[in-house]
Amino acid sequence: MVIRHTFILFALSCTFQCQSPESKNHDPYWDSFRNLSISSFEEGNTAVLSALNADVFVTQEWSSDGDQALRLDMKYDEKKSGVELSFPQHLDVSKFKDLTLVFEAKNPGPHSTHLYCVIKAEDGTSMRRSASIGPGESTSLYYQIEGDFVKSDSDFRDYPDPWGTKSLPMKTRGLMANNTYNKIASIQFYTQNTLFDKSLIIDNLRFVETPPISHDYLAGIIDKYGQPQGDFEGKIISNEQLKKLANEELEQLAAEGTMAGRSKYGGWANGPKLEATGYFRTEKIEDKWALVDPEGHIFFSSGIANVRLANTTTFTGRDFRNDTVRWRDPEDVTPEDSRGMIELSEAVTATSYVAYPERFKIFQELPAYDDPLANHFSYRREQYIGPFEHGETFSFYQANLERRYGEPTPGAHLEKWVDVTLDRFRNWGFTSFGNWAGNEFFHLNRMPYFANGWIIGDFNTVKSGMDYWGPMPDVFDLEFTRRVKITVDVVAKEVKGNPWCIGVFIDNEKGWGKQGTPNSTYGIVLHGLNQDVEKSPIKRHFLTLLKNKYVSIKKLNNAWETDVLSWEILANGIDYREKESFSEEMVQDLSDLLFAYADQYFRVVHDALEEAMPNHMYMGCRFATWGLGPEVRQAAKKYVDVFSINYYQEGIGKKYWEFLDEIDKPAIIGEWHIGVQESGLYHPGVIHASDRSDRGKMYKDYLQSVLDNPYMVGAHWFQYIDSPTSGRAHDGENYNVGFVTTADVPYPELVQAVKEIHHNIYENRYNSE
């Protein structure tokens, strides 16, 4: 029976047992621990199965425990495609001290399947993890829900396997969550926004009491090169090996040179010649948008974001009693994660102490303060997400550059890094940098780039409910306007009118609101309405708009179906954020107010850029997919030259992107990436491939989907360098998302795939007929 839009009830006995029945495929490691069978999809099992945009049925083609298993045939381009197993009586797991989900899976299809799993508790608490299973592969997977593994906070997004099992760990999505699960309401398995139909067979679902973990299992897991302990492909074991690899790559780059067929700026040398304005611009060519380089060549921006050294540091666990390292300039426009290395004086390092012992002990070896590599220590005055208030940091990547290229003169390894990076980009076929290129590249005039700025300062803020990166600015606060001008002026001074600068990104992944209920969609407006008009510029502006429209409070009450006694009461602030129902007129007003807010934001930024940098395009704020509603799109459309969207999926489908027809503006992917678990790092990143070869294939599939979209004028991979294995200082991300390792060694499978698709990137996009 195929389950599509209905659900089916399986009778299922959920009993505690000390050992699972003998199985053909599952990892026997879990058998010696207390477990609770959820479903093996045999006769006599109980669970409610609901298909989620997928074909779901019991099959006998493969099973890990018995004769039957559950097959999911999942559909491409669906936001979610899979199955939900719900438990009307809720599974009681309170007898477990800690909890881990274990199951087996087989991928019968030709593509790797990046599987997501969400477990929801009776109280609505949920947790999501994911893993990639390769074509034809069958494996055990585990998903730790509770236990020391989850509770630990040593500044990792995810951790090494603490048990050394043969099972594939499902990796956390977002942040670790230390929740308590007494009763389980449902489990979902699904794919999302895929480019191809995917299939998976799952079997023998069970909860297992989380095995004990050694108290010091993290001790010494990071070696002197910043690599994880253990063996993996490409591991560096000596300085001599690093130098040998560097010399071999330098010879190869010199022999091959720049990819052929490119103009001075990386455009299509052999393509049609358009008007040359001396700067980058956009033009629609028949039905496809394009960038045009300063000489008039068609240009597609394929690049890598975050090519800089600012994000290569990781916390060591030490801090200093000398407060001078924590001083801030109140007029500073540079966020903490974008600051360069901070030189530590002897007066500072003399006050060093171990502030976080659990963190400090993860490192096998750090240089002494009088070691030649001690210049790679730095300092962070704050951590955005994580357990550290502030502290010492170290850049293993920069130390490895010095080991790799030597240091005949001070700073020589950094100069060599710039040259090698540019040679790599031109050889690999990239046409530009993405966002956050180090400004040491700006005036070498060898690779087009994007400048960037952040609007930070002491202005009023509001909250949307989607405030992962912090609250939103009160854009009607005059201090916001002043800080925009200060930021843009700094960017303009850095760029100096250079035609190699394609455009400017301002801000990143702003929390405009999550599409759904009025409460989540219009969080900014609802928060603004709750403010005191005497203290809040946004409230003053909103109140003015409402008074102009309704004149009397009675008319507003009739439209909103409310009973506000006076404008004065509304001016003092009313909290509608928990309101259960909204009239159509109130929803329309919330929509209009959100548009007014977004219009002010984009207008202020646009006008500042137009005044200071009139020849450079405004690339927007790099929208996240969860913050791009119609009001914000329509406001941005008036001011940005190119829509920038960070899109972490397997590729560009059609359903999500229908809004591009509505706005008819060029668009660019600001961030995307794909990683693997076999890299040695403890987390693959947001999107997973099954292995390094599959990573290269998925890169080509993603970029091809961008090339096939008529509105897309570029895509920027995030990022150039793997995250520090021990987590970047900003927020603990420890992802395998780089083109090069923390030892500055390129991933050959990824490089080869990139060169293959870049070789004919312009012909592919514009001569596809």
Search tags:
alpha+beta, 25% helix, 18 helices, 34 strands, seven-stranded antiparallel beta sheet, 769 residues, globular, eight-stranded mixed beta sheet
Topology:
Elements: E1 7-12, E2 16-17, E3 35-39, E4 45-52, E5 54-59, E6 69-74, E7 81-92, E8 99-106, E9 113-121, E10 126-133, E11 138-144, H1 148-151, E12 168-169, E13 171-172, E14 183-191, E15 198-209, H2 239-256, E16 281-285, E17 288-292, E18 298-299, E19 301-305, E20 314-315, E21 318-320, H3 346-349, E22 352-354, H4 357-360, E23 377-380, E24 391-394, H5 396-405, H6 412-428, E25 432-433, E26 449-453, E27 461-462, E28 472-473, H7 478-495, E29 501-506, H8 518-521, H9 523-529, H10 537-550, H11 553-560, H12 567-572, H13 584-612, E30 617-618, E31 623-624, H14 630-637, E32 643-646, H15 659-663, E33 667-671, H16 692-707, E34 712-718, H17 748-758, H18 761-766
Parallel strand pairs: 11-12, 19-25, 19-34, 26-29, 29-30, 31-32, 32-33, 33-34
Antiparallel strand pairs: 1-4, 2-3, 3-15, 4-7, 5-6, 6-15, 7-14, 8-11, 8-15, 9-10, 9-14, 10-13, 16-17, 17-18, 20-24, 21-22, 23-24, 27-28
Helix pairs in contact: 2-5, 2-6, 5-6, 7-13, 13-14, 16-17
Structural notes for this entry:
The chain is of the alpha+beta class. Helix content is 25%, strand content 22%. It is built from 18 helices and 34 strands. Strands 2, 3, 5, 6, 8, 11, 12 and 15 form an eight-stranded mixed β-sheet that branches. The longest helix is centred in the C-terminal third of the chain and has 29 residues. The protein is globular, with a radius of gyration of 27 Å. About 3% of the residues have low confidence.
